[in-house]
Write a structure and sequence with these properties.
The protein contains 7 helices and 9 strands; from the N terminus they run H-H-H-E-E-H-E-E-E-H-E-H-H-E-E-E. By secondary structure, it is an alpha+beta fold. A hairpin with a 2-residue loop joins strand 7 and strand 8.
Length: about 325
Amino acid sequence: MPLFRRGANGGDDRAAREAAAAEQAASLAALERGELPLRAQQRLAELGAGGGLFTSDLSVNEFALGAASGLRPVAQVMGSSIYHVGWQQSPGTWAGWQARGVSQELVTLSEAWNTARSRAFSRLAQEATLVRAHAVVGVRLTVGRHDWAAGAIEYVAVGTAVRIDGAAPTAEPVLTDLSGQEYFLLREAGYRPLGVVGATSVLYVVSGWQQRQVQGMFSSWANQELGDFTQGVYDARELALGRVSADARRQGAAGMVGVTLAHAVEEREASSGGSSRTDLIVTVHVLGTSIAAETETVSAVTPALTVNVSRDSHPAHVLGGNR
């Protein structure tokens, strides 16, 4: 008798492995197109058909208020993208002796962050569409980098898909970073959310000669502002806010609410012309919800910003790693 013997179901096992491999290949192809994996599509489509147990990250107060106002949670939905950052030329080698510092956008890094965010929100919207939601409320965004994936960044967007009792089905659910209570109050005030808008800018700030004297061993003991760095942070913020405002304006928004602004600063040691200096890499993330009045769409005015200063940073990354 042989030590190992092929079972009668060997053909079935091989067919199962081949089916699993085909499903995985199809899921990878869907991800390359910016879509969801097949199993996620199937599960959400079944949930959208009704009769399933809903999940949400709504608080008890939000759930109770939503139930009283005809806002029903359907499912917790998510969009994610882990994105590889391409090659970026290191600036600053040409800036050896200029008196004042200069700021230069790291276009490759900015595009990577913005593309990852766009794909994450697209997948979030796809999940909401599959469960036949009218909107997604309480969208929380976490960003991060990982030690196990050098040169990669990640965006994760999580929210609760909701339906509005008596409302007609919609082809494109509205994404918002508003809580359930805020979404209800906005509608009661006669405004409607148009969608989440966001932007990221990454700038390399070269320290000028004047600032290097302030930072160096012969610097004065008096308090002094590092003007080059201050200007660089402002440049990064204005660039990100300008992009967000442009997106809201294209949506026909009257303004944006719930705007959060988070920034990170990374030191970079550089040298040129036989001297060394400390430069900065400044990253600014902006996120908010664009809104318009129910009775009109405003497109000729610049959207106003209402910044929530109580939330000045993104929450800790859900998968760990460095932010």
